[in-house]
What we know:
Blueprint: H1 4-13, H2 20-32, E1 36-37, H3 38-48, H4 54-66, E2 70-73, E3 81-84, E4 90-95, E5 101-104, H5 110-120, E6 128-133, H6 136-144
Parallel strand pairs: 4-6
Antiparallel strand pairs: 1-3, 2-3, 4-5
Amino acid sequence: MNDQSEILENLRRNGYRVTPQRVMILAVMNKHGGHISAEEVYQQIHAVHPYVNRATVYRTLEMLSREGVVTVTDLGKGPVHYEMHTGEPHHHLVCQQCGQIEEFDHALLEPLQKSLERKYKFQPRLEHMAIFGRCSKCQVKKTKA
């Protein structure tokens, strides 16, 4: 759902006002095309439009997350990161030692999702997440040390 006009129309239908600030935030998110922190979004907008305040950016990103427009992931490097929701789940393995980030297949999480739904009657949102640990290179370094 990266078509900005479609996103804006869906927001209107869900009772949200389409403000210039929200349009700017969506434009930055679409242009960036990857993981970006709220602070980075704010800096890009503030450089051109200094009247936009930080709280507006943070609140808007939270609302866009609730509405399923963006996904939120903690990559273990400071603040959470946002990314436009593409409709396709993707996940990351994050090495806590060297910082390497590798994507992994969503199919690995499908049994977990079904188990959570069946056992706990809970519908998890597993479209974008990170799992922390140590990559194979760092495991080898540790055993040699």
